[in-house]
Write a structure and sequence with these properties.
single chain, 705 residues, 22-stranded antiparallel barrel, six-stranded mixed β-sheet, 4% helix, transmembrane beta strand, Beta-barrel_TonB_sf
Length: 705
C-alpha cells in the first residue's frame, strides 16, 4: 500500500493520465531491485514524502502508525519506539527486536537483532518502506520484516529548508538543510536537527537530541555514483517508571503521572553519542550493476536499567555489503541479485554499576544487621562496580535471488539468504542485584563467565505474482527466516536456540488512479520462538517456546472521493497462539513448568484498525485527520486477564502553504484520551502500566529555498 496525504488526482500530471496507465510506486527493499509494489510477492507499505512532510516527525512512530499489522508505541514521544510487526518484537522491553532496520541500504540493526533509532535523523527522511514477515533479502535474522528508511539524496538540491517547531510540554523541533552542486561532478549537503521535549505531564520523561550530518556525492565520468555521509548524534532520553493499579487509576483521573511510582527503578534512560560513516558506490556496466557499501560507526551510552546502570565507553562497528545485479534472459526478462555481507561489533570495557542514590527500607526484625531492601532510586548516579564485559559479535552472510518474468502477467522470484552469527562474550561479575531480597550482594571471589555461541540461519523464499488485469494482481509467497537471541538474552539463558519462522501468504493488490488496496492473508509457524516471562519480582526471563502459530489478515486502502478529498483505512486481524509452550514459572529459587499451549500471545490485539480523511485545496490548504484503534489483548502468557486497549486515538494536521512558506499545526490525541500504551501482568498477579501521552500540539513553520 502507498500511504499518501494528497490524492493522486491533484498531481500536476493528472490530466495526462489514462485508465490504461498504472498508478503505483517503486520499492527497493523486498528484493533489492526497483519494482512496483504491485509486482512484489509479499506485503509491503511505502510511506511517501507527502505523508512524512505532513507529520511533525518527532518520532518514527509519527509516520508509520496506522499501517496494518504494525504496532508501534512510544514511552517518551522521542526516538524510543516499541515496534511489533506480525507479533515479532513483542518480547522487547526496550528498543526494537526481530525487525531489520535499514537506512539507505545500510543496516542499522545489530547482528543480535537489536535496533535503535537514536542515530536516525527523522527530519531527513524522504521515504519509508516496510516489508512484513520473512522474505526480504536485506533481513539477516529478521522474522518480523524489514523497515528501510530512505534519506534525502545529496543530489537533491530542491529540498533545502529551515524548519522551526514549538509546542506543548516544552516541545522544540529545529531543522535545517543546505545542499548544492560544487561543480559538474560534485555535490554536498549539510543537515542539522535539534529536538527537545520536557514531557512534564509526568516526572522523569525529558528528551533532547542533537544531530549533524555531512553528505558528499560524486558523479564519475563513466556514469558511476559515489555517495558518502559522516554524521554525529547526541541523544539523552529519560524513561519513566511503570505504574501499579492504584497509580494508573490516579493517572486516569488527573491525566498526570507525578511523584514516585511503585516501580523501584525511577531513573531509567539512555544517554548516547554516535559517530556514523557510510559510503555507497553504484556502477552500471551494460547488464551488470555493482553496488558495494561500507560503513562504520562508534557509539557509547550511559544506560540505567532495571537493577543496574550500564556504562559502555564505546562499541566499534565495521561492516560491508557487496551487491551485484545482473539483468539477463533466463525465463523471459530476468534479474539476478547476489552478494555477501560482513559485520563486526566490538565492545571493550563495558561496565555495570549499582545505583548510588537509593531509598531503602529498614532490615527485617529477624535480621537487623542484614542488607536494607531498595524501595526506589533517587537519581541515576553510578555507585559500586558490579560487572565488566568484553564482547564481539560477528556476522557473515550470503544472499542470492532470481526474479523472472516468463509472461507479461507473471513474475516469479526465488532465492535464499544464509547468515552465520557468532557471539563471543567475556564477563567478570563482582556482584549482582538480588531480585529476591531487593538488595545488592557482592561475591567473595569474582565470577568469570565466557560465552561463545554460533547460530546458522537459512532463509529461503519463493514468490509468484499474477496480473488478473492491469489494475489487480494476486500473489503467493512461501518464505522462512531465522531469528537469533539478543546478547543479553543469551547471557541470561545460554541454552536459548535461534527461532525459525516459516510463512505462507497469499494476497491481492489493486492500483488505480482513484483507489488502491492491499489484502494479505498469512499463516506463520514459529518454532523455538523466544518469549518473555514477567516474574513475581518484575524481572523478565527469556525462554524458547516449542511452537507458536500466527494467523492473520491485513487490509488497507485509499479512495479519492473527489479531486481534493480522500479516505484511507487499514484493518488487521491477528490470531497468535502458543501451540506448544511450557512456561517456566519461578517459585522462590526453583522453576516449575506450566503448560500454556492453546493460549494467545500477550500484548497482541485481535483487531487493529485505522481511518483517515484528508482534504487538499489548490490554494495550499490541507487538513488530515487520522484515528487508530488498538483492540483488547491478554496481559500475560497465562491469559488470566485482558486490557481493553483503546478506540479512535485521533491525530489532526492543518497546514497552509504559500510559495516557499508553510505553516502547520499537528495535534496528537485530539480528544485527550487517557489510556495505557502497555499493560503487563507478572506470574504472581502484579500488573504494571505505561501511560499514553495526553493531548499535545505543535506549530511548525517551514521555509524552502
Amino acid at each position: 500500500m502507498t500511504i499518501t496525504t494528497q490524492p493522486l488526482a491533484v498531481a500536476d500530471e493528472a490530466e495526462d493520465r489514462t485508465s490504461d496507465e498504472e498508478f503505483d510506486v517503486i520499492s527497493v527493499t523486498a528484493s533489492r531491485i526497483e519494482r512496483k509494489t504491485k509486482e512484489v510477492a509479499g506485503s509491503i507499505d511505502v510511506i511517501d514524502s507527502e505523508r512524512i512532510e505532513s507529520e511533525k516527525m518527532f518520532n518514527i512512530k509519527d509516520a508509520i502508525q496506522g499501517s496494518a499489522g504494525v504496532l508501534i508505541n512510544s514511552k517518551n514521544s522521542a526516538y524510543d519506539s516499541r515496534l511489533i510487526i506480525r507479533g515479532a518484537g513483542q518480547k522487547a522491553n526496550y528498543g526494537v527486536r526481530e525487525i531489520m532496520v535499514i537506512r539507505d541500504g545500510v543496516p542499522m540493526t545489530d547482528p543480535d537483532s537489536f535496533s535503535r533509532f537514536d542515530f536516525i535523523d527523522t527530519q531527513d527522511i524522504e521515504r519509508i518502506e516496510i516489508t512484513k514477515g520473512p522474505g526480504s533479502l536485506f533481513g539477516a535474522g529478521s522474522a518480523g520484516g524489514t523497515i528501510q528508511i530512505i534519506s534525502k539524496s545529496v543530489f537533491d538540491t530542491d529540498s533545502n529548508r529551515v524548519k522551526l517547531g514549538a509546542g506543548e510540554f516544552g516541545q522544540q523541533n529545529l531543522h535545517g538543510r543546505l545542499a548544492g552542486d560544487i561543480n559538474d561532478n560534485n555535490a554536498a549537503s549539510i543537515t542539522a536537527s535539534y529536538r527537545k521535549t520536557d514531557n512534564d505531564w509526568r516526572d522523569w520523561n525529558e528528551f533532547e537530541s542533537k544531530q549533524l550530518a555531512l553528505k558528499h556525492g560524486y558523479l564519475l565520468d563513466n556514469g558511476g555514483t559515489l555517495e558518502s555521509e559522516l554524521s554525529y548524534h547526541e541523544a539523552d532520553l529519560q524513561l519513566p517508571g511503570s505504574m501499579d493499579d492504584e497509580e494508573f487509576e490516579r493517572y486516569l483521573d488527573t491525566g498526570e503521572q507525578k511523584d514516585t511510582t511503585s516501580s523501584p527503578w525511577q531513573h531509567s534512560g539512555r544517554y548516547s553519542t554516535i559517530w556514523f560513516f557510510n559510503s555507497r558506490y553504484e556502477q552500471e556496466m551494460d547488464n551488470l550493476t555493482l553496488k558495494p557499501r561500507v560503513y562504520a560507526n562508534q557509539w557509547d551510552h550511559y544506560h540505567p536499567v532495571t537493577g543496574a546502570i550500564n556504562d559502555n565507553p564505546g562499541t566499534t562497528v565495521l561492516g560491508t555489503d557487496l551487491e551485484i545485479t545482473y539483468k539477463h534472459q533466463l525465463w523471459g526478462e530476468s534479474t539476478l541479485v547476489t552478494g555477501v555481507t560482513a559485520r563486526r561489533d566490538n565492545t571493550e570495557g563495558a561496565k555495570k554499576y549499582t545505583y548510588a542514590d537509593v531509598e531503602t527500607a529498614p532490615p527485617p526484625a529477624w535480621n537487623p544487621t542484614g542488607p536494607a531492601t531498595i524501595l526506589h532510586t533517587n537519581s541515576d548516579r553510578a555507585g559500586d562496580l558490579l560487572e565488566e564485559e568484553d564482547a564481539t559479535n560477528t556476522l557473515y552472510g550470503f544472499y542470492i535471488q532470481e526474479t523472472m518474468q516468463p509472461t507479461e502477467k507473471v513474475n516469479l522470484e526465488f532465492g535464499f539468504r544464509y547468515d552465520r552469527n557468532n557471539f563471543d562474550i567475556d564477563s567478570t561479575a563482582f556482584g549482582e542485584y538480588s531480585y529476591g531480597s531487593g538488595t545488592y550482594t557482592f561475591f567473595d571471589t569474582p565470577e568469570l563467565t565466557k560465552t561463545d555461541k554460533t547460530f546458522n540461519l537459512f532463509s529461503p523464499k519463493l514468490g509468484l505474482t499474477y496480473a488478473l488485469d492491469q489494475r489487480i494482481n494476486v500473489y503467493g509467497l512461501v518464505a522462512q527466516s531465522g531469528q537469533v537471541p539478543s546478547e543479553s538474552e543469551i547471557q541470561s539463558n545460554p541454552k536459548l536456540d535461534a527461532a525459525t519462522a516459516q510463512n505462507v501468504e497469499v494476497g491481492f493488490k489493486g492500483r488505480e488512479q482513484a483507489w488502491s488496496f492491499d489484502l494479505a492473508i498469512y499463516r506463520t509457524t514459529v518454532t523455538d520462538e523466544i518469549v518473555s516471562t514477567l516474574n513475581e519480582d518484575l524481572t523478565t526471563e527469556f525462554q524458547n517456546a516449542g511452537e507458536t502459530l500466527k494467523k492473520g489478515v491485513e487490509l488497507s486502502g485509499r479512495y479519492d472521493v473527489a479531486n481534493n478529498i480522500w479516505l484511507e483505512g487499514s484493518f488487521a486481524y491477528s490470531d497468535y497462539t502458543f501451540t506448544d509452550f511450557d512456561e517456566l514459572v519461578r517459585n522462590g529459587r526453583s522453576q516449575t513448568p506450566v503448560d500454556r499451549s492453546g493460549n494467545q500471545l500477550p500484548y497482541i490485539p485481535r483487531q487493529q484498525y485505522g481511518l483517515g480523511l484528508g482534504y487538499y485545496h489548490p490554494l495550499g490548504i490541507k487538513a488530515v485527520i487520522r484515528s487508530n484503534s488498538w483492540g483488547s489483548y491478554y496481559v500475560d502468557n497465562a491469559n488470566t486477564e485482558k486490557y481493553d486497549g483503546y478506540d479512535f486515538l485521533t491525530n489532526l494536521m492543518l497546514s497552509y502553504q504559500t510559495g516557499s512558506h508553510t505553516l502547520a499545526l499537528n495535534v496528537e490525541n485530539l480528544f485527550d484520551k487517557r489510556y495505557a500504551t502497555e499493560v503487563k501482568k507478572s506470574t504472581s498477579g502484579n500488573k504494571t502500566y505505561s501511560a499514553g501521552a495526553p493531548r499535545n500540539a505543535m506549530l511548525t513553520y517551514t521555509y524552502l529555498f
